[in-house]
Amino acid sequence: MQTIPGHRVRFGELAGSLVHGATFFDWSLISTQEMTEAFDHSFQEILAADGIPYAPVVAGTSVTRYPAVGDVVTVDTVPVNVGDSSVELLYEIDNGDGERLATARIVHVTIAGDGSALPLPEQTRSDFADASVDRDPDVGPGTGTDTGGETPTFSSSFRIHSPHIEGADLAYFEEYPRFADIALERFLDERGTSLAELRGDKEPYRIRDWKWEFKAPVRFDSTLHVNCDVMAVERDTIRVAHELSSNGRTNIEGVTEYGCFDRTGESVPFDDAMLTPFR
């Protein structure tokens, strides 16, 4: 199902010369809503019953090329696995020429007010199953941890205010990578590295491959702690283990790989100066 047809990238979606990494999360969420409404299980209906519609449980993504302003983006979404209360959706993000920009896989569960997972309506589950495809693309980060030396850890905290929340009074899906980006930039500042000086022909520290497991929602007016443990520093990637927690509980944990891209969105190696703060 084509959930986002021919969307032209706009200035407001950019961070520098390329789209913000959180935009991929946003396109996934928009596509989820389009898909579920097509199967007669609308977000509006779930919210009216005080549920959290199609919350992500496990989200994995790999970005091949970052879109820039003027690029046309299309998202195709299909179910690949269906359970009693969950559905795994595959998102394929292409440009106007059919070039693959990113691939994402997200397992979704609708959550009741008491925190339990709600079963999918019988007809919706049946429709998802009928539409399922047999595809198993490998997405997400690598598993290597050979750093060749000691690597740093760093953390930041954020109060969840109204601009960060969605309709269910929880932190919005696309805010999490933003918080991780801010934590990273604060770390660079502490190491005396200016991101503004590093950027030029290259856009470093772009979220590229990730797999995050969502364990609990982040609620309005809580304090979110973002803990980052650098696992590997290589010419083509910086691999970071993330834990996001609030009120003494882990909300999200996973692994993120950051890459470097040129101004057309193509992946390029990091410069030595970009890797120095991590060594």
How does this model look, in words?
The chain has 279 residues and is an alpha+beta fold. The protein has two domains: 1-139, Thiol Ester Dehydrase, Chain A (Roll), CATH 3.10.129.10; 145-279, Hotdog Thioesterase (Thiol Ester Dehydrase, Chain A), CATH 3.10.129. 20% of the residues lie in helices and 40% in strands. It contains six helices and 13 strands. It has helices at 22-38, 43-48, 122-131, 175-190, 195-198, 272-275, and strands at residues 2-8, 14-15, 18-19, 52-63, 72-82, 86-95, 100-111, 153-159, 202-214, 223-233, 238-246, 249-262, 267-268. The strands form two sheets. Strands 1, 4, 5, 6, 7, 8, 9, 10, 11, 12 and 13 form an eleven-stranded antiparallel beta sheet that branches. Strand 11 (238-246) and strand 12 form a beta hairpin. The N and C termini lie far apart (45 Å). InterPro entries: HotDog_dom_sf. It comes from Halorubrum glutamatedens.
Topology (SSEs and partners):
Elements: E1 2-8, E2 14-15, E3 18-19, H1 22-38, H2 43-48, E4 52-63, E5 72-82, E6 86-95, E7 100-111, H3 122-131, E8 153-159, H4 175-190, H5 195-198, E9 202-214, E10 223-233, E11 238-246, E12 249-262, E13 267-268, H6 272-275
Antiparallel strand pairs: 1-5, 2-3, 4-7, 4-9, 5-6, 6-7, 8-10, 9-12, 10-11, 11-12, 12-13
